[in-house]
Amino acid sequence: MSIIRRFGDRKILVIGDLIADQFVYGAIDRVSREAPVFILKHEHTETLPGGAANCAMNLASLGAAVSLIGVRGNDEPGNAVNEKLNSAGVDTTGLLVKDALRTTTKVRILAGQLHSTRQQVIRIDYLGDPLTDMIVREKLREVVLEQAHTVDAVIVSDYNYGVADGEMAAFTRDVAAARKIPLLADSRFRLKSFAGFTSATPNEDEVEQLLSKQIASVAELESAAEELREQLGYRALLVTRGGHGMMLLEDGVPAIHIAAVGSHEPVDVTGAGDTVIAAYALALASDSSFPDAARIANYAGGLVIMKRGTASVTCEELESSVLHSDIS
Fold first, then answer.
1. Quick check: 109 and 121 in contact, CB under 8 A?
2. I need a surface site. Which of 51, 65, 261, 289 has the fewest CB within 10 A?
3. d(CA 52, CA 66)
4. Active-site annotation holds for 91
5. What mean pLDDT comes out for the span 208-226?
6. In terms of Cα–Cα distance, which of 285, 133, 326 is closest to 298?
7. Containing domain of residue 199, as a range?
8. How confident is the model at residue 268 (pLDDT cuts 50, 70, 90)?
9. Could you give the C-alpha distances from 312 to 24, 105, 146, 230, 307, in angstroms and in order?
10. Residue 28 included in any domain
């Protein structure tokens, strides 16, 4: 519990791709005469911070001081996300606004009968253009240099939209190494671009894809994950396994398997990876060991998947969840 109680004294820097997660809710009214499709009567629309912005929201919810560095468009989704971040206390002075850029927006349509639970029926993605502006890239590096000297850990949240490229990865690695602070990567597609970091949180499928091999057993997963950890030069690698929990590979230590907590039937897994790396990084920044940080992240993940939409976990919820655990 003492680890979690240190969260409020820590400051974390998040660098990466901001996404606007938009949820459109409606009730199925009738079948259209124009085509064999349902007509959805709109109820309300909600725009929430996604991607790196969701990671920042989770850190703030857990009590940390948070700064977010990235790029957004000067458009309605970008403005809505920025407002939510500011309301949560996230420092957005490092979030550059580019008029010519469209904020990447993922629209989820949730429908149901009048008195039933709304279920996601389709997702529509509005993707921003690749970040090719060298002036903007240089400004991002300047902001990283300005803000990193006061933080206790750095998270790079890469959703392959351009902020966290190889150049930024190398630059951030040098900055974190000079400060001797934890540096963590969350990358769905390009984890090999983030070699030399402290740790990362891929899932099982991503481990398979990164090594171009199929994994048929837990023993094979252990071997593959250790191979990946060694390739990337990480002190530890935390592999998330959905309903099977997590597996931690630490240099010179046998693999640790952590059972999933809570329900095995999640309500919504949207953004759960952002919650996991937020709790994991914050625990490491609070002088936790890798095993205890992994267990704390496991509890945070178990809590957030029971919430609908892009959600966060509070420090109070996390404390309550681990109250009877062996984490001190």
1. yes
2. 289
3. 12
4. no
5. 94
6. 326
7. 2-20+50-105+129-322
8. low
9. 19, 19, 28, 32, 8
10. no
